[in-house]
Automatic annotation (TrEMBL):
<keyword id="KW-0808">Transferase</keyword>
<keyword id="KW-0489">Methyltransferase</keyword>
<dbReference type="GO" id="GO:0008168">
    <property type="term" value="F:methyltransferase activity"/>
</dbReference>
<feature type="domain" description="Methyltransferase type 11">
    <location>
        <begin position="38"/>
        <end position="121"/>
    </location>
</feature>
<dbReference type="InterPro" id="IPR013216">
    <property type="entry name" value="Methyltransf_11"/>
</dbReference>
<dbReference type="InterPro" id="IPR029063">
    <property type="entry name" value="SAM-dependent_MTases_sf"/>
</dbReference>
<dbReference type="GO" id="GO:0032259">
    <property type="term" value="P:methylation"/>
</dbReference>
<dbReference type="Pfam" id="PF08241">
    <property type="entry name" value="Methyltransf_11"/>
</dbReference>
<protein>
    <submittedName>
        <fullName>Class I SAM-dependent methyltransferase</fullName>
    </submittedName>
</protein>
């Protein structure tokens, strides 16, 4: 149960937090200037825009199967070094890149091993990051814990259960199986602060992403019950703000093109 069409709505949900992770991710990669980058599953352009701003690339190519997301990226990133195309990970061609990256996408690719092998074939350094769905991505963790109490029969929708490989060990195993060398991982933690409960809750109503799409599928009474349980559980400061954190796990490896 996924929905990926509106870039603007997705930005208000998790796109903005991905941008914070992207900065730490690129600092960790520490790549030289003047390289050709491929951003697989570029979405709204969170990672691509950060590459353009901080990594001094020669070129950034972003590909994503969502025409709506690609349109958003094209409309918000005005840089001659960047181009965006509607393509999936299964449609990667033979063009070679110095660095192939992917942010918050690997868990949504049906054939992850095939995608990683394609990245291995066309890239030098390959690196990805995913949310720590089972624990450290608090805005989602709180939601799914509440949803499980209201609708226990739907517990298999929880992203923490659906994507158990989104751990350092799981990512390292995937990269090693795909043939990468020098595989390393790290965690990246960023603050996710909401000025009010409504600021936290409203993005879930947009239908973009797994949790919002699931919420939209429920009866209004169940949606209200989840909302009320979250309002009760979330830690609220005296000014009404809610301070959470989001943890992502990143992995990188050296591909055949770099040997």
């Amino acid at each position: 149960m996924n929905e990926w069409s509106s870039g603007e709505i997705y930005e208000s949900y998790v796109g903005r937090w991905s941008r914070l992770v992207a900065a730490e991710f690129l600092s960790w990669l520490d790549q030289p200037e003047g390289l050709r980058w491929l951003d697989v599953g570029c979405g709204t352009g969170a990672l691509s825009s950060t590459i353009l701003r901080t990594a001094a690339p020669a070129e950034v190519v972003g590909v994503d199967p969502s025409a709506g997301f690609v349109e958003y990226a094209r409309g918000t990133i005005d840089d001659d070094r960047a181009r965006f195309e509607v393509r999936s990970a299964a449609d990667l061609g033979d063009e070679s890149f110095d660095v192939v990256v992917s942010g918050l996408v690997l868990n949504f690719i049906p054939d992850r091993q095939d995608a990683l092998r394609r990245m291995h074939a066309i890239g030098g350094t390959v690196a990805v990051y995913v949310w720590d769905y089972s624990d450290g991505m608090e805005l989602m963790k709180y939601f799914w814990d509440a949803a499980a109490e209201i609708k226990p029969e739907d517990s298999d929708q929880d992203e923490g259960l659906r994507f158990p490989f989104c751990t350092p060990a799981g990512l390292e195993a995937l990269f090693t199986e795909a043939g990468f060398a020098d595989v390393t991982t790290r965690s990246i933690v960023v603050p996710t602060v909401f000025e009010s409960f409504d600021a936290y809750w409203k993005p879930f109503l947009g239908g973009q992403g797994v949790a919002p799409a699931y919420l939209r599928s429920l009866a209004e009474s169940d949606q209200d019950a989840i909302r009320d349980l979250l309002r009760e559980r979330l830690r609220t400061a005296s000014d009404g703000s809610i301070s959470l954190t989001a943890r992502a796990y990143a992995v990188r490896g050296r591909a055949a093109a770099a040997e």
